[in-house]
Design a protein that fits this description.
This protein is α+β, with helices and mostly antiparallel strands. It is built from nine helices and nine strands. The longest helix is centred in the C-terminal third of the chain and has 23 residues.
């Protein structure tokens, strides 16, 4: 078992940490002992591919660490009066304040990219409320590919996050080369925890106590909202980058879910994250409940399919 830890730092002069899906330390545990490995023999015309290559690559990515730098500026792209744009006289921060650098394992970075890239199309138009910032995935791919240079095989790492099977909310991150359709290859599949709460056991327990699809949906929605936004009371009451990013994430998530938040709750004086979280979670739960009823025959099946706390990762290698 390997502990995978992503740590994030900002400008050295600003030690404040943004508590959100993209701006908190991640604690990801890669359970390599339980990975599933299979080899697809699709083309025997070339060199024989070593079926252990994918497992070896997964172990390497779960242990090797690297730094990824990016900017939070795109996260602040909103018309809200509560989020001054960079360059505005009212903005108590600059572009330099928005620079971030994250240190962690390669596997942890890919998992983070999948969660941060989750697309919401619950209300018709897809949005990315959990976006991590500009250049994160691109830099990650460059660093990861560089780390595999010199290998005797090509590799692709794909991570998929979704709160439950069949959900329209999902995020995917792919790094490495595209997998050729007709070649001998080996694949390792595993899961790592996301930074969102693992609530499958809670959902199952709720159904066992008589709860239906709505109970499952409530657990999933609460985990997504609370886990994505974090402890935001202090952030909303402060000034500068921490507050701006937190407000922007509230607005982006509200837009994705299709609700309007009370403007007063976003102000420093009237900051009320508990009320906003409840508004977001209630609407999200209603939409999730409809999806769960369509996707599963019973609430028990729906509860067992909850996966908001994990990211599925596959590592494919070929020659």
């Amino acid at each position: 078992m390997t502990d995978t830890d992503l740590r994030e730092t900002g400008d050295p002069s600003d030690e404040r940490a943004v508590s959100s899906v993209a701006d908190v330390s991640l604690a990801l545990v890669l359970v390599l002992a339980s990975i599933a490995v299979f080899v697809a023999f699709l083309d025997t015309g070339g060199d024989e591919h070593d079926p252990a290559a994918a497992a070896h690559t997964a172990e390497t990515l779960g242990a090797a660490t690297l730094d990824v730098s990016y900017s939070l500026e795109p996260v602040l792209e909103t018309d809200s009066e509560h989020v001054p744009a960079v360059g505005d006289s009212d903005a108590p921060y600059s572009s330099a304040d928005l620079k971030r650098s994250t240190h962690g394992t390669s596997m942890g970075h890919v998992a983070r990219a999948a969660v941060a890239g989750a697309g919401f199309d619950l209300d018709g138009g897809e949005t990315l409320p959990l976006a991590v910032g500009d250049g994160y995935t691109e830099t990650l791919e460059e660093r990861l590919v560089a780390s595999l240079v010199g290998s005797q095989f090509a590799a692709n790492v794909t991570a998929v996050w979704k709160p439950f099977e069949g959900s329209s909310v999902r995020g995917t991150a792919r790094v490495g080369e595209p997998v050729p359709p007709d070649t001998e290859r080996s694949v390792v599949r595993t899961t790592v925890p996301s930074e969102l709460p693992a609530v499958r056991a809670d959902a199952v327990a709720a159904v066992e106590k008589g709860g239906g699809y709505g109970a499952v949906a409530e657990h999933v929605a609460d985990a997504l909202v609370d886990g994505a936004l974090g402890d935001t009371q202090r952030a909303l009451e402060t000034d500068g980058v921490e507050r701006a990013v937190t407000v922007s994430r509230y607005l982006r998530l509200a837009d994705a879910v299709g609700v309007t938040l009370d403007p007063e709750a976003l102000t420093r004086a009237g900051a009320d994250p508990a009320a906003m979280n409840e508004t977001l979670a209630d609407e999200l739960a209603a939409q999730f409940e409809a999806s769960l009823e369509t996707s599963f025959e019973t609430p028990e099946e729906a509860a067992r399919a909850v996966s908001v706390g994990t990211v599925a990762i596959s590592v494919t290698t070929w020659t």
